[in-house]
Amino acid sequence: MAELKTKVNEASVKDFLDKKADPKVRQDCDTIIDIMQRVTGEEAKMWGTAIVGCGSYQYKYDSGREGVMCVTGFSPRKPEIALYVSAGAAEQAALLAKLGKHKMGKGCLYIKKLSDVDAKVLEEIIANGVRLIRAKYPD
User: Fold this and answer.
1) Helices 23-40 and 119-136: crossing angle, nearest 10°?
2) CATH of the domain at 70
3) What is the pTM (predicted TM-score) of this model?
């Protein structure tokens, strides 16, 4: 089985965001980090080379594949910010309907900028995602 590349590491979140994000996106990233840290009670860390995440959980799929991943995280990409918040879960649907301008991927939530969405609803989505992950993968 191939080794996972997305692992927590000691790279600097600040340095990553300084290089990766333009000033407007950077402010949004800092706000998202504040929300994630408040919700999880854990410090933001780099996961792999492009994901900022808080907390961790160990998963094991029915296929036997297993690993460790951040409980919640995001990646500032060129066109938008990808948020890893269990957005595809049925329990998130009502909140997503109130969020504002966003797109959905398989399990990711994409926003162009925080001003496009309701920040309080985004915090609820992140908190709900954290609860879902922690319930599914208890320590």
Assistant:
1) 50
2) 3.90.1150.200
3) 0.92
